[in-house]
Amino acid sequence: MEREDDEALSQLLQSLSPPERDPMFRIRVLERRERRQFTRKVALLLAAGAVAALAYAIAAAAGGHGILRILGLTVAGVLAAAMYVPALLTALRGVVR
Amino acid sequence: MSSEEDAALLEAVRGGSERAFNLLIDRHQQAVRTFLRGVTNAADAEDAAQETFLAAWTHAAKFKGAASVRSWLLAIAWRKAKGQQRWSFRGRRRDTAYHDFAAIGGPTEASDPADRLALAQALAQLPTDQRAAVMLCLGCGLSHGEAAAVLELPLGTVKSHVLRGRDRLREALGEM
After folding, report:
1. Which residues of A touch B134 (CB under 8 A)?
2. Of B59, B85, B109, B110, most Cβ neighbours within 10 A?
């Protein structure tokens, strides 16, 4: 009797179940993942851009201070390369194909 | 699906396989979403379910094989649901039980809408841990031991939650 009651309750609880196959749910998960990756990438690029600009400004303001100038330009150059090289490689791959 | 196959699937997900990730979602979305629909409101349940699979994608390497992949996913889902509850108003679920019920989609295999409404309201009356234990053991078919691992509660506590929750549900639903 108890077991039958449990089965009836289980069946009722399982009525909350979504379909066994639900491609729309999968698509929503993948879409959310892509959106998040894109947001992260944009945030990283913006942060790198801001740091590069700051480094360049410091280098420009350094004037006669050679080491500071070189350091600032190096940081700006590395960050600029880090930002644009991946995009450039992707574009080149597309041309080669 | 065997636990070995599931573990192999997760290993492939860890390696970045899109196909394996799609399969993982297809195979476990029903259990995860059923559980979450029982423990939180419909909108939060969908959100937490999506976040669960994203966490599985990101943290696949953290799966140690101590439990089944399904239990691991349900444990993530439980943490997500608890995280959401911290941000929501107390008693919100009780107040919105009807709307939540109305928002629950899916096939629901010819279940009577009145039964589903009564169930949503009855579940809303249970304390969160009790509701989770009932959903895992009676709704998702986990053993008490598996549910204890998912909820990170002692086995005895889970057994008592299931017993009390079941009795309270029966009482709320009438003569079941």
Report:
1. 13
2. B85
